[in-house]
Amino acid sequence: MLTTTQDNEEIIERVAALDTGKAELMCCVRVPDQDHPGRRRQEVQAYPTMTRSVLRLAGHLARLGVTRVVMEATADYWKPVFYLLEAAGFEAWLVNAKDVKHLPGRPKTGKLDAIWLCKVAERQMLRPSFVPPPPIRKLRDLTRYRAGLVAARTAEKQRAGKLLEDACIKVSSVVAGIFGVSGRDMLAALAAGERDPKVLAQLARRSMRAKITVLEEAFTGHFTDHHAFLLATMLRRVDAISADIAALDERIAGQAAPLAAAVARLDEIPGISLASAYVILAEIGTDMTRFPTAGHLASWARLAPGISDSAGKKKGKGSTGHGNAYLASILGNAAAGAAKTDTSLGEKYRRIARRRGSKRAIVALGRSILVIAWHLLSDPDARFCDLGPGYYATRINPERRRQSHIRQLEAPGYTVTLQPAG
Predict the structure, then answer these.
(1) Are 50 and 144 in contact (CB under 8 A)?
(2) Pairing mode, strands 91-95 and 68-72
């Protein structure tokens, strides 16, 4: 069967490719050869990655009339080069290194890699990776750093919990969160030198006061000055990190102020908080023209089912690969929150979890939340409207519902006989 495609085989007339390292980059330029019409002239040269050298490279490329500069995503070394060339007015493309692997058996050098990348790029056999505009990049820097600080604070709290176990202080077996208001007061008293279990237990507040007797038993251990020194150090680190997170929250809110309308729309989705909305916008931006459909965005985030088949046979479930870890984490947290709600998303989680398990249900719900976010960001007038927990049940075929109920009753061992009513 013949089909018509829209492949554009036109060769880019003037293109450059960069193999970027920490201290040096290799630049390959391919332009038309004025002395030999129909042939290409190639130039390969190394440049330091210092700012002045990159600007000198930009000037040289401008004189050659280069329109597109392509580079691989190599660690973080591509960023300063990309940003400088982008600011100089070039069409800068960042491409996935997996898409431009050299032919097997060939030597691997920076020069050969740059030449190969340039040849592939001039034939338009590559697609650019998503690099957000500068305002979104600044927001991304803030939200990612915040995620790192939250992880560091969590690790410090876990160390404190292990220290208490080492000292035979079993308060974590009684109190769900030892860094809550009551738990924190108790830890501060321990670090300050208080050892009397009764005095420590009396620091409990509100509903926790019903556990005073158990708390007295939990605080009976072997907490020494050595433990007190370590605990005091850990508490100071937790406080310092918390202060930094609070400062970051204020900075993030200011950076995201121009996106207030988009943040408010995302905040309407079950499971999405203001902090989650900031992270989603920082990772995918607000311009959804970069993702033609919601499916494209889900595929980019690696939340779409993989496909792997050959000779008409499916080879199991194709791997989706590794996506954006920050986006996946926040969508997972949002899905876990939405799963507990009495909404269409919550019902979707429960319906999938019964058949496929909770992990698959969380991934499916995360994808649904991302699809909803795409629609909200694509249309400024769109608003989230919950369909209700009974939406799916009202749409499925009556025969499918009947079979589903029969299977649910037969699973515990019942024999089901149906008889028409009336």
Answers:
(1) no
(2) parallel
